[in-house]
Design goal:
The chain has 295 residues and is an alpha+beta fold. The chain is 31% helix and 11% strand. It has helices spanning 3-9, 12-34, 60-70, 104-109, 117-132, 146-151, 197-208, 239-242, 265-270, and strands spanning 137-140, 160-168, 213-222, 226-234. The protein has a four-stranded antiparallel β-sheet with strand order 1-2-4-3, covered by helices on one side. Strand 3 (213-222) and strand 4 (226-234) form a beta hairpin.
Amino acid sequence: MTEEEIKEAKPKRSRKTAARKEKMEETAETAEVTAAEPEKKPRARRTPGKAKKEPGKSGPEEAAATINENKPEENPQDRPESPPPEPVAVAPLIQLKYRKGRSAYAHMGSFRKNAYRDALGRTEWERLIKWRKEGTITPIEHPTRLDRARSVGYKAKQGITLVRIKVRRGGLRKRKISKGRRPRRKGILKITMNKNIQRIAEERVQKHYPNMEVLNSYAVGQDGLHKWYEVILVDPYSPSVLSDRNLNWISDPAHSSRAYRGLTSAGKRGRGLRWKGKGAEKVRPSIRANDRKGK
């Protein structure tokens, strides 16, 4: 084969590097003739086709050997000192505005107000991820909202337990009527449930624990599908409850099954007993006693 055929048979990359090398040699020769002092030749790049191979070395071993030969020895003392690591950003502590005359529970409750809502956003988000994996009714040791639990009668003593329950969200769902009807006669809009979701949650807990009485409950979280409530249960025949003058009233048989009869705080709210006077004439003594005209 002639030299031209050999050049054509080589890959394009090797041909370009060979032509570039010839140009660099020509420029170096002309610079030596014209300049009085000799200039350093530019270092030619190593091409894969014309690399000198030593016996016993090939591939990555040869590349590592050439890099080690050209690399000067470094003194560990001459190495530049690495910059110190940047400090990790820490969220600033939230300082509550202390007001004279307010209790500690009042300051705890202020965390759920709009001014401090961002402080609990991440914590509540992580709680919901954990609660979704739990069962419908889960016993717990400590209240999630201590201030709210204390306000509805919770005490950390024997005979009182806490249960977290998950219930679905949404109002009364009625099916769509397939036959013809005037919209106002369909009986779908403006028809609400007789019980709110919190009362339903209390009744389910009462059914699950028939030997205990529901004292009260409070909301702790919600997402797009469910709501979570914490229900306070009391053992009416526990010695610690019988000796407590603020709680022994629940041992009277007149207060048995209070969740089913709407005697809890959520039950009285659902029966309309939070209001008096004008507009609430038909809610006492009960809704049913007034032919259900109070709702």
